[in-house]
Amino acid sequence: MTRFQKELLPPTTQSKGFRGTQEQIPSKIEKISSAEEEVFKRLVPKFQALRINMDEFEGVYRKEDIQRDKKSVGGKKDLFYGQDSPFQHRAQVLEALLAEQIELSDWFGENATTVVPAEYDDLYNGVDLAIELPHDNETEGLTAGIDVTVSKGLSLTAKLFLIKSKIEKGELTEMKYFVSETDPDQRRRKKMPSIVIGVDPRTINELASLWLTVDRSKNPGQEADQIDREMLRGQAREAQQKLARHRAQVLVLKQIELQLEAFGNFARKKGHDRIAVEFEKLLLFVRKTLSKKTISKADEIANDSDDTFRAIRKNLEEYFS
Q1: What does DSSP say about strands 129-133 and 187-192: parallel, antiparallel, or unpaired?
Q2: Residues 6 or more apart from 33 whose CB is under 8 A from it?
Q3: E strand or H helix at 132
Q4: Is-contact 127 145, C-beta < 8 A?
């Protein structure tokens, strides 16, 4: 955890340690599954290639300002990401899997699209992924910033406390370099509600294994014969169906629902009705989307026992009530 994150923590967590969900500090030798590592190699580069290009904002911002931002990104990456760790790999795998499944498997409903931010907004504004949600005749299209976590401890608390501090000041999260998927010619600064989502390692491994099954059918290798290819295609169809229906989509939507309700109520309590409305509009969409999702009782139990989900709920009860 960085010094900046520690400063954002509530006093009780700074002096006594966070009650209930202690931080699991990742080490250099932390193990992640072979499936996660393989997805990191195959999918994450494709995800990174989709990042918004800051150079395309010349004319919106001065060239020298863009270059300054790029230089600051390089410095911050050297500071925080100089040591490539399995923990970081897991986080990037989750970001890439979420981005793909939100679009390909309609995890957030039909026509929801993802925007992969420029590294500046990732590192400085805490936006790992932006979601653009469809609009109808009554409601403007909605946008949300997603901060992805694979932590259930103090790092998670810091992310939520940063959102709380913004709400207290009547602010939303900002993306300096924003390009809409629905209107790619518009390049501008964008403010939006922000939420934190994450799942525990067992769920990430499930998703990674299913994704690999699908991907391997597309790239079976020259040594695979026709029978192997047919078998791989059959396994891939089954895996893709499981991905499309995976309990993780309900898990993250419920995390979002809990946060939007808490953030909206907190904004009202602080007298910031304007931004409360933004949280509430998103909440209506999420509840409508959730009403169309069904999972088994076993999947409900698995979701309720997810460590990250439980940590988010506990943080919200303690700091937003």
Answers
A1: unpaired
A2: 201, 205, 208, 209
A3: strand 129-133
A4: yes
Give the pLDDT confidence of 283-295 residue by residue, as tens digits. Answer: 999 999 999 999 9
What's residue 226's pLDDT? 55
pTM of the full structure? 0.86
Task: Say whether pLDDT at 140 is over 90.
Answer: no
pLDDT at residue 263, rounded to an integer: 98
Burial readout 275-284 (b: 16 or more C-beta within 10 A, e: otherwise): bbebbbbbbe
| pLDDT for residue 151 | 84
CA-CA-CA-CA dihedral for 21, 81, 129, 274, to nearest 10? 70
> Per the structure block, which two tokens stand in for 177?
């370099």
Q: What is the DSSP string of 227-255?
A: HHHHHHHHHHHHHHHHHHT-THHHHHHHH
What the block records as the tokens of 282 is 């998103």
3-state secondary structure of 167: helix
Spatial separation of the C-alpha atoms in residues 140 and 281, rounded to whole Å: 10
Identity of the amino acid at 126: G
| Segment holding 174, helix H or strand E | strand 173-179
